[in-house]
Task: inverse folding
């Protein structure tokens, strides 16, 4: 670990040992710095006090449990009072799910486990109050890394580092309509800084070694691929394996060989269509973005990805592949984490019983009033500004505030249903939405103030093909929109 302080932007965070976390910083001087900190991951157990007191004895000799202590947390988010819970330090990140299942077995169904399925990288950022691409000053101390924030997640005019971009494409020497893992590599093309480099000399081992060497020399922060998650990355790892070159086939900044793995994607059904989502193939110390497996980047470009990742505190590689609902969940988890509300693991809470009349009155979301056909005059348009989020924010609507036990006589009621809404505490959902709606309104003000194109400084390459190679010119990262300016 560096002995001197580092000032720059956080690019990547990930576990690099049983209890260590690696943090990659893009320094203001242009250097890429890797820092390592020993980070204690904690989970919580709630149940009868007698069961909790006996639990450490039952776990004696477990290599997954470190220190433990009793503390006060909000174990039941439906109640406004804290509960006594057992806080356990987990000694190995990789064994956390197995350890949690063991706790449930030992409890015999009488214990509830919390804060288990939050990724280590996100838990680390929640604890340290960090977010991707945040500008910080990092100083080593006897208690680990000490972060001093230099910008805020609420900023709309923040500075970003100059990121190095590379496109990776592989031509397969196929003998069928679709490429297969057994087909050899024909050529590898790299695009960076407006240059195209084609690696097509020698055998497969030579091409793979040249690719590793070129990536190491250019040292990109972001590598773009097309189909990298579903085929390209596992294909390259397999070709390196069959040629006995996998050990040295490193595309990450960290010295970790590319992992092909046999992970399967996920097939799901949505709005009458079946979709397939490939598993994440990540790099360490760099960001891999598969443009065929991303929603945020495809819809909003890099600037939109940066904004979403910063605001919702989701690592860039995960944010590029997640749905907006999953990304929003991270912000809710952060809100709960900071308010000392525990997040249950594998808890299924069924919806409360409703009569047929209550269902009819309550379920109006899918009802559409059909207009009368014909030509109409004196038609008025009513524009709602984020109608449902704004209603939840202003009326404190959240799972734990509707029908709360502490305010049965609350003056705030759900129309027609008469459900009471808590007036003594703010819900997690309104707390989460406040930041999002405030930033959204601010961006709308900037858009209306400066116009749709004002504030963009033209780039000679942007009009033709964009600085990032195949990215449309309107998404070129050398442009400078009002919501993020590049550092010199």
Result:
């Amino acid at each position: 670990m560096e002995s001197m302080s580092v000032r720059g932007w956080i690019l990547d965070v990930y576990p690099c040992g049983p209890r260590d976390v690696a943090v990659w910083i893009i320094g203001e001087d242009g250097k890429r710095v890797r820092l390592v900190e020993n980070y204690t991951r904690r989970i919580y157990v709630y149940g009868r006090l007698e069961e909790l007191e006996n639990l450490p004895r039952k776990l004696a000799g477990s290599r997954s449990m470190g220190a433990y202590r009793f503390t006060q947390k909000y174990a039941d988010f439906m109640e406004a009072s804290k509960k006594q819970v057992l806080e356990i330090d987990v000694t190995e990140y990789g064994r956390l799910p197995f350890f949690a299942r063991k706790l449930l077995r030992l409890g015999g169904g009488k214990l509830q486990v919390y804060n288990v399925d939050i990724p280590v990288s996100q838990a680390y950022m929640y604890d340290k109050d960090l977010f991707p691409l945040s500008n910080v000053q990092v100083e080593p101390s006897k208690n680990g890394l000490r972060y001093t924030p230099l910008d805020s997640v609420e900023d709309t005019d923040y500075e970003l580092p100059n990121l190095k971009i590379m496109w990776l494409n592989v031509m397969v020497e196929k003998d069928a309509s679709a490429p297969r893992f057994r087909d050899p590599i024909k050529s590898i093309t790299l695009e960076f800084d407006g240059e195209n480099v084609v690696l097509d000399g020698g055998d497969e081992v030579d091409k793979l070694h040249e690719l590793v060497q070129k990536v190491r020399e250019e040292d990109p922060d972001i590598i773009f691929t097309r189909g990298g998650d579903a085929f390209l990355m596992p294909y390259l790892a397999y070709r390196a394996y069959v040629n006995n070159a996998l050990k040295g086939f490193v595309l990450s900044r960290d010295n970790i060989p590319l992992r092909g793995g046999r992970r399967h994607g996920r097939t799901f059904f949505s709005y009458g269509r079946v979709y397939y989502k490939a598993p994440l193939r990540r790099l360490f110390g760099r960001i891999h973005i598969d443009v065929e497996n991303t929603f945020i980047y495809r819809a909003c470009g890099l600037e939109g990805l940066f904004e979403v990742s910063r605001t919702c505190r989701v690592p860039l590689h995960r944010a590029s592949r997640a749905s907006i609902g999953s990304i929003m969940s991270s912000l809710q988890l952060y809100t709960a984490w900071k308010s000392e509300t525990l997040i249950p693991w594998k808890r299924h809470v069924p919806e409360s019983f409703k009569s047929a009349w209550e269902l009819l009155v309550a379920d109006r979301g899918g009802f559409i009033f059909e207009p009368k056909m014909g030509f109409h005059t004196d038609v008025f348009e009513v524009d709602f500004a984020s109608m449902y989020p704004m209603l939840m924010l202003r009326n404190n609507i959240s799972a734990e505030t509707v029908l709360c036990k502490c305010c049965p006589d609350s003056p705030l009621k759900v129309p027609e249903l008469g459900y009471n809404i808590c007036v003594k505490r703010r819900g997690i959902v309104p707390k989460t939405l406040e930041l999002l709606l405030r930033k959204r309104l601010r961006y709308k003000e900037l858009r209306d103030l400066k116009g749709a194109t004002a504030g963009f400084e033209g780039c000679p390459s942007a009009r033709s093909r964009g600085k990032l190679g195949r990215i449309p010119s309107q998404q070129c990262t050398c442009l400078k929109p009002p919501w993020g300016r590049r550092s010199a």
